[in-house]
Write a structure and sequence with these properties.
Number of strands: 30
Mean pLDDT: 91
Strand content: 35-45%
Helix content: 10-25%
Shape: rod-shaped
Number of domains: 3
Low-confidence stretches: none
Length: 420
C-alpha cells in the first residue's frame, strides 16, 4: 500500500517537471531562434523479492531533450539581423571570454562598433575595414566602422571601350572624336581628362590626352595642358595592332602622368589600358559612328559611411555615400555533431557540455554548415497547438495520480479504523 504512495508521488513530480517544460516552451513562443524542448519519461524498476515480479516503483526524473529542428525564416527590419537555414550556430564570446553558441540572429552594434547580441555577447567572425577579409584566420570580435569617412584612393589606371569610324575622312569633322574621362587624385579631387582622336590616314589615328590647365600648378586657366600623345593603327579587320597586345616583357598601355597638381595632391601615375585582362582590344575601327560604349577607372573619392548591413551568406557590407559597397566582415558559423548535448545558459545562448563534440567553425554553406539569410530572423519552433495538447494530457495525468494518493489515504484511514 505504501509503495503506491511513493509511486504516485513520483508521477506528480515527473508531471510537474513536464509542465515546467511546456510552460517554458509557451513562454518562448515568440523568441527568435528558440528551440522547443520535449520531456522523455522513464520507469523505475524496484528489486523483485521471491518468485513474484515487482510491478515497479513509479517514474524516474524525466529527461529534457531540446529539439533542433528548423524554424521558419522571416524577413525582419534589422539591417544586421541574420537567420540560419540548416545546421549550425552563430559563435559568441561572453564578457568572461567563454565561447557560446546561438541560433538567435538579432544583432546590434555598440558604441565601439562591436557586433553583439542584445544581451552583450560579442559575435565572432572575421573583419577588415579595408575589405580584405581573410576567412582562413582565427575568428575574433567583429568591429564595424561607425560614422567614419573612407579615404580617397588615387586613380592608377583607366580604360575606354570605343569605336572609331573607319569611314571618316582625314581633315573632316568626322575624322575627329573626343571622349571624356574623370580621374581622382590622392586628396579625392576629381579631374576631367579629354582624349581626342584624329584620323591621320587609312587605319591610322593619332590621340592626345589633355587636362584643364587650372588643375596643374604650371598650367594656364582656360588652356588645356597635354599629358600624353601617340598613334593608333588598326588592321583591315578593324582590330587594334599598334600599340600591340600586352606581354610579360612588354605590358601594353599608355602612360598618362599628372605632375604638379594645383590642389597639393600627390603626382598621379596613370596607365591607360588599351586591352582587357584577356588581351582583347578595347578600341576598334569599323564603319560606324565614333562612340564610346563604356569606361572605367579604379580611383575613388572620399566617402561617408551610410549603412552597414548583413547580406545573404553572412557577409557584412558597408555602403558609402559615393554609391560604392565593400565587404568588411564575415560572420562565422559552428557545426556541432550532437547539438542536443549543449547546455542552455539563458538569453538563447548555449554552451558545450562534457558530451559535446568539438565545434567546426567556418564560413556558412561550407563543410556541412547551413546558409545564412541576411535581414531575417528564425522563428521559434514551438507549436502552440501541440503544447496545449501536452498541457491537457499532463493535467489529466497529474489529476489521476493525485486521485491515487487520496484513495490510498482513504484506504489507510479505513485500515486504522479497523484496528481501533
Amino acid at each position: 500500500m505504501f509503495t503506491s504512495f511513493s509511486t504516485a508521488l513520483s508521477a506528480l513530480s515527473a508531471d510537474s517537471t513536464a509542465l515546467d517544460v511546456v510552460s517554458n516552451n509557451l513562454a518562448n513562443l515568440n523568441t527568435s531562434g528558440f528551440k522547443a524542448s520535449e520531456t522523455a519519461f522513464h520507469d523505475l524498476v524496484s528489486e523483485a523479492f521471491g518468485s513474484s515480479p515487482d510491478p515497479g516503483f513509479g517514474v524516474s526524473r524525466p529527461t529534457i531533450i531540446q529539439q533542433f529542428s528548423q524554424g521558419a525564416v522571416q524577413t525582419s527590419s534589422g539591417s544586421l539581423d541574420a537567420a540560419i537555414q540548416g545546421d549550425g550556430f552563430f559563435v559568441l564570446k561572453d564578457k568572461n571570454n567563454n565561447q557560446l553558441f546561438t541560433r538567435g540572429g538579432k544583432f546590434v552594434v555598440d558604441s565601439s562598433g562591436v557586433l553583439q547580441t542584445l544581451t552583450g555577447e560579442h559575435v565572432q567572425g572575421w573583419a577588415d575595414p579595408t575589405g580584405n577579409v581573410n576567412t582562413n584566420g582565427p575568428v575574433g570580435d567583429i568591429i564595424l566602422p561607425t560614422g567614419t569617412l573612407r579615404q580617397a584612393f588615387a586613380t592608377t589606371k583607366f580604360s575606354l571601350n570605343l569605336n572609331l569610324d573607319a569611314s571618316a575622312t582625314v581633315g573632316a569633322t568626322s575624322g575627329t572624336f573626343s571622349a571624356p574621362m574623370q580621374v581622382v587624385d590622392s586628396l579625392g579631387t576629381t579631374h576631367d581628362l579629354t582624349i581626342t582622336f584624329t584620323k591621320t590616314g587609312i587605319n591610322a589615328w593619332s590621340y592626345g590626352v589633355t587636362v584643364s590647365g587650372s588643375d596643374l600648378t604650371g598650367g594656364t586657366a582656360g588652356t588645356p595642358s597635354s599629358l600624353a600623345t601617340g598613334t593608333l593603327t588598326f588592321d583591315s579587320f578593324g582590330k587594334l595592332i599598334t600599340p600591340a597586345a600586352p606581354t610579360v616583357a612588354a605590358p601594353a598601355g599608355v602612360p598618362v602622368p599628372m605632375t604638379g597638381l594645383a590642389d597639393g595632391a600627390a603626382d598621379l601615375s596613370i596607365n591607360w589600358d588599351l586591352y582587357d585582362s584577356k588581351s582583347n582590344a578595347l578600341l576598334s575601327q569599323f564603319a560606324q559612328t565614333s562612340a564610346t560604349s563604356g569606361n572605367s577607372q579604379d580611383g575613388t573619392v572620399a566617402a561617408q559611411l551610410v549603412k552597414v548591413a548583413m547580406q545573404d551568406g553572412g557577409a557584412i557590407v558597408a555602403q558609402y555615400s559615393n554609391g560604392q559597397e565593400k565587404t568588411i566582415a564575415q560572420v562565422a558559423l559552428a557545426s556541432i555533431r550532437n547539438p542536443d548535448t549543449l547546455v542552455g545558459v539563458g538569453s538563447g545562448n548555449l554552451k558545450q557540455s562534457e558530451k559535446t563534440g568539438l565545434p567546426s567553425i567556418g564560413v556558412a554553406d561550407t563543410g556541412g554548415r547551413g546558409k545564412v539569410a541576411g535581414g531575417s530572423l528564425e522563428s521559434s519552433t514551438v507549436d502552440i497547438a501541440r503544447e496545449f495538447t501536452n498541457l491537457i494530457v499532463l493535467q489529466r495525468g497529474y489529476q489521476a495520480n493525485a486521485k491515487v494518493i487520496t484513495t490510498e489515504d482513504q484506504l489507510s484511514q479505513e485500515t486504522i479504523n479497523i484496528k481501533q
